[in-house]
Amino acid sequence: MFDIIGDIHGHADELTALLNKLGYSPRDGVYGHPDRRVIFLGDFVDRGPEIRETLEIVRGMVETDAALTVMGNHELNAMAFHTAYPDQPGEYLRPHTAKNEKQHGQTLAQLSESQLSDALAWFRTLPMWLELDGLRAVHACWDDAAIGQIENQLQQPGGLTDQVLASACLPGEPLFASVEAILKGKEMQLPTGYSFQDKDGHQRTKTRTRWFLAADGHTFGSYAMTDQLTCDVPLSEDVLVTCRPYGASERPVFLGHYWLKEATPRRLARNVACVDYSVAKGGFLCAYRWDGEQELRNEKFVYLK
């Protein structure tokens, strides 16, 4: 059975405390459990004070089969930040703007050049999703069409090459929309005049959606994956026609990414759970202890306060 752990963002002390609470212990420097494995949901780097230590713990567990993992958008962003833009010397797939440099700054400060190079090479080997017997895991959003398109490309020789990475990171390229959906979540444009402030203080006129719910009857505010937006305008037809809710009979899917703020974790739907409770923004590290149940239960969350 699996313990699914959300976004860590360089908080290794919290990670070791959570692993201890879950019954994992180190052997030869690597955490493991006699009967269980971890599934990590990505976002190991950026923001926190112990990025190198976090990578060592996670990678050690993955490489000894004590854990599985998926890629987060911060791993994708890191690869893009250090991959040159095709045919434009000195430019990168993720531009070196002040905003992007600030977001990636702790990783740059804490890892040596060789450590960073090694981490980036490892990130290229990480799957973007897992479909296992009885459950699914993805960083932000499960979408069969998007996953199918990405899978077709990644099955080509070379895997996540610079060319494929460019297709995933550059607007207008074939993989961009699909990778954005599964690693960053689906978005909708807000009605004219509406906006909200995100966790980093940026004003947004688009918001991530509660893609796992049927959209009928929702307003922009109730369908938004944020509690920072007040908008009672009913969803527009262009939003409704693009919604493909996650079926209630589908196997459970576990997510990170969404910086949830509730004091007590709870499932998003009967078969959908997010385990990102904002450890890098004053929240706590969270896991879900899964034992095969197809209807998820709130009492199965394990977390540190």
From TrEMBL:
One of its GO terms (cellular component) is cytoplasm. Residues 3-94 form the Calcineurin-like phosphoesterase domain. Signal peptide: none annotated. One of its GO terms (molecular function) is phosphatase activity. Gene3D superfamilies: 3.60.21.10. This is Diadenosine tetraphosphatase. It comes from Blastopirellula marina.
